[in-house]
Amino acid sequence: MARLMLISMLFLLAGSMLMVQGGDPTLFFEWNVTYGTIAPLGVPVKGILINGQFPGPNLNSTTNNNIVVNVFNNLDEPFLVTWDGVQHRKNSWQDGVLGTNCPIPPGKNYTYKFQVKDQVGSYMYYPVTAMHKAVGGFGGLRVNSRLLIPVPYADPADDYTLLVGDFFNKGHTSLKKILDSGRNLGRCDGVHLNGKVAKGDGKDEPLFTMEAGKTYKYRICNTGIKTSLNVRFQGHTMKLVEMEGSHTMQNDYDSLDVHVGQCFSVLVTANQEPRDYYVVASTRFTRREVTATGIIRYKNGKGAASSELPPPPVGWAWSLNQFRTFRWNLTSNAARPNPQGSYKYGSINITRTIKLANTAQRVDGKLRYALNGVSYVEPTTPLKLAEYYGVADKVFKYDTIPDEPPSDNTRVTLAPIVLNMTHRNFVEIIFENHETAIQSYHLSGYSFFAVGMDIGKWSPEKRMNYNLLDAVSRHTIQVFPNSWSAILLTFDNCGMWNLRSEIWDRHYLGQQLYASVISPNRSLKDEYNLPEGVLTCGIVQGMPRPPPFSS
């Protein structure tokens, strides 16, 4: 009963209308995207607001809800938002990336329609156009468990979203110009927590409130564009319970490294003296450490937060070791009433291995980032539309990169990158990072098993150390400097799916690709038809609509 009341309150807080249409409920949202002045670090910046908010509103839903979001673009430039972590089964049309969707023109709107099918957990949304993400347009996206499916912990007293990220005071237009000129963004100016930074002068309003003796859920997401962050709660430990849609073994942590694009859910119990405490976020793997704080206030508490902050960890080896403590909770249920551990991924034969190595090179004097020697460029026609309309050969070529990095990985060419994936193949992807900067990757449309991570170069014998039992099923993975990471997944979700760097200057300058998964049956059982009202652009604009799949 308590969770039902909580979920109903969340719907009301999000300003949505709930409609039950005989099956799964449908939630309707209307978003107005505008410019507005923001100042998370105290310096006024031209930001991007959703319904006047920075960060944007929480999008609250429950497993299998149908979500309809009508986005009105009131900016003076194209805009597009993606739903990071939502799998869009059979429906890459709604993924909201430039390889599948035309951006929303200024003064126009587009209505996203998707279902959070068989998912539960903590996610986020953010813009993918230009450098918009640097100044807003992002927010939390939560998928609550159905009442039928118990979660492996007691209902918390409240459910909070904590969005942390780096911030650049230059603004998105200047950041874009820097990248277009072939230069590096450099280091961030600071860090924010839900768009704010505590001043520590005794006048700060709390980000969150807690009541002594009660336990609270915090959904922590790194919505920044470049920097890994360490998050910790002054005087309190965090019990990790969920990560990017998977319940985890419930270990306690004093601090957690949250890499760009990642989301964790933790439980924090208010078991300290009732007063103010800081939640702290610090930059990781940067020459100059930057720390920001926010206030957590005990109800009826007395006393300011101590100025003595808990120290951050040192070095990336600590972070690598922390990754190895993350384990899937095989005794809990997923979004469906079947045990998560029933999928025995460790016993499936690998049908294809793809090794991707990132590089930073200059092309015609300008900085570009590449995968296996090719730096992705965005065509004017979305890849998925070109494929659906039968004009793919005029827009891109399949398999422009090899499955292994070239022997001379210093040469870089510019082209769209589309991997032709065989439907339902079980694939191993190795990320090799030969650079000194940490990497963070996301794959749309899927969750994968993060089975291995270590220093040095990958080789086949490294498989002996894979976690083939309880690796967490997730959608992002970090790769430490001069190290590798390995993931396993079945490409069973038809569509055009983006594998991208979550480090946004790298994404903007080419460190991404797409995986095309087509069913040989060309059937509605495997993929939905092109939606009515979809925006068209490029060479498909004005072309007759292809005949739909019939069954």
In words, what does this structure look like?
GO terms for molecular function: copper ion binding; oxidoreductase activity. By secondary structure, the chain is mainly β. It has three domains: 26-144, Immunoglobulin-like; 158-325, Immunoglobulin-like (Sandwich), CATH 2.60.40; 345-517, Immunoglobulin-like. The protein contains five helices and 34 strands. The strands form seven sheets. Strands 10, 11, 13, 15, 16, 17 and 19 form a seven-stranded mixed sheet that branches. A six-stranded mixed sheet has the order 23-22-27-32-29-30, with no helix packed on it.
Task: Outline the fold blueprint.
Blueprint: H1 2-13, E1 17-20, E2 25-38, E3 45-50, E4 59-62, E5 66-73, E6 81-84, E7 109-115, E8 121-127, E9 139-144, E10 159-167, H2 172-180, E11 190-193, E12 208-210, E13 215-222, E14 229-233, E15 238-243, E16 246-247, E17 252-253, E18 255-258, E19 263-269, E20 276-283, E21 291-298, H3 316-323, E22 352-363, E23 366-371, E24 374-375, H4 383-388, E25 413-414, E26 418-422, E27 426-433, E28 439-443, E29 448-455, E30 473-474, E31 476-479, E32 483-490, E33 495-501, H5 504-508, E34 512-518
Parallel strand pairs: 2-5, 4-9, 10-13, 12-21, 22-27, 24-25, 26-34
Antiparallel strand pairs: 1-2, 2-3, 5-7, 6-8, 8-9, 10-11, 13-19, 14-18, 14-20, 15-16, 15-17, 15-19, 20-21, 22-23, 27-32, 28-31, 28-33, 29-30, 29-32, 33-34
